[in-house]
Specification:
The chain is α/β, with parallel strands linked by helices and about 200 residues long. The protein is built from eight helices and six strands. It is about 40% helix and about 20% strand. Helix 1 crosses helix 7 and helix 6 crosses helix 8. It is globular and about 50 Å long. InterPro entries: IorB_Oxidoreductase (IPR052198), Pyrv/ketoisovalerate_OxRed_cat (IPR019752), Pyrv_flavodox_OxRed_cen (IPR002869).
Amino acid sequence: MKPSFDILIVGIGGQGTVLASNVLGEACIIENRTVRSAETHGMAQRGGSVESHVRIDGRFGSLIVPGTADLLIAFDLLEALRYRHYLPAGGRLVVNRHLVVPTSVYQQELAVPDEESILAALSDLEVTCIDAARLAEEAGSILSQNIVMLGAASGDIPLQPGSLEEAVRRCVPKKTVEVNARAFRLGREEGMLGRGAA
C-alpha cells in the first residue's frame, strides 16, 4: 500500500497553482494530517509551466515520482498533456477545458492543437473536463478558476469537503472569501456530475 496520496497540480504562471496547493496543505493541517509539498516555478513569470506537488500522509520527500501520482489537477489542457506521464495508465485527471497556445507554436508556424485531439491523447486516463471559467464567473470572479478546479477534484481527494472549504476561507484574500467559497462549491457540484466523463 502506498504511504501517501499524491496530487500534482499543474498550470501556467498566474493561474494560481501555488494557492491551490496551499489550500490543500491548510486542509491537511485542519485535519491534523501530515503533508509535504513543493513547487517548481520554471519561467512562470513569462507564462511558463508551474507544478505543485502535494503528498498527503507522506513520510518521505515532497516530490512525486513520474507514473505514481494518484491525481493530476490541470488548469490547462496542454499542461495536462505535458504532465500526463506522472499518472499511471487509468489514472485520475481533472482538467480545465481551457487552452493557452504557447507563443512558440505561432513562431514556428505549427498546427494549433485542439481540445478534441488533446483529450484523445489522454484517453487512457479517467478524465473529468471542467469549464472552470464559466463556473468562476458564476461564482463572481474569473480569477477563482483555481478554486473551482479544487472543488471539481475534491471528490477524489481524501480530505473532508468541509475542511477544504474552510482552508479556502483561510487562504484567499479576505475580500474574496465568499466568492471563492462559492467557486469551490460550484466546482464540487460540477466535478461530481462530470466524474468519468470528458
